[in-house]
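Translate sequence into structure tokens.
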Amino acid sequence: MKKIRRWVTARISQGAVRSAPLLPGPVVRVAERAMALSGPRLPVLGKMVAENMRAVGVYSRQTHREYFRQVANQLAGWLHVFRYAGWGASRRGVPMPEGLARIVGERVCVDDSVDLLRQAAGQGKGVVLMAMHIIPVPLWLARLNQECRVTVLGRYSKDERHQRIKERWWHVTDVDYVAVRKQDQQPGSRLAEMSEVLRQGRIMAITPDLARKRTEGKPVRLFDRQVHLPSGAAVLSVVTGAPLVMISAKPMGKRTCLTFRGPFEAAVAADAPDDQAAAIAERMQWFADGLETFLRQHAPLWFFWGDKRWTGVFRGDPRYVGAAEPSEPPTPDDVGEGGL
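Result follows.
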């Protein structure tokens, strides 16, 4: 059943991507309004999102409705991206089309705290940017990239067609990326590639807000639960010495406004190998605290209220919540955890 669901989802996604170049702007707006109205009434997803919000005390009917309005905003964002990506293969290094740049600016803004990111980047060590799955995902990254050039860690999809779709997104929005299949990697190769990004003084964006099983992630406290998140961003910062900055968001009228926090100030030194685990844990808890603040203040802007793994977290599934099971110490290859 899981394989069938994935196959159906993949075919729908591919069909939407292929048809998007044929869709005029007004049709996208109609699809967006339809999703915003129907989303809260969806019998499975609507109920799941409401229960997850209730589990952490952020539910209200208005919040629930606004979340699906934002999901519709994300759907429209994807359609606009692939309207401009067109049918053919897009290429790296081509500026974002003017029409798409205008749409990005209409839907996403950046507040003055972006100067924290610029100042951190000015130190010459690069920056590890800890990001969340902020709605609209396909557009906020493009908007940030207009302010500060960003390289994103991309999770390589097992489905080659889905991977090509993701790459077209990054290409059409002119975002650099690191995405290598696990079977093609040499030990430590991803660390070397990402460290080179930082050595050049660039910004490496990683999304650690992916729920993991107790055997897989780094334990943090979140909403009075012990949950587990991928530690790649923290590992990369500790290993390279690059500063950590966190990005979240707030609503500003009809736009999502990106906000920044940091750089992270360590209380635990990471000079000796034995100190690295504590330093990684400290950085991950800093991110978890920021994520909780974001969810309490601006819950509708987070995409993962309907995610299956996060549903396990919110419902107290012992596979995801509780003390960590024994695992190996962090390795350089852990930097590959936590991508878009």
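Note: The chain has one domain: 2-314.
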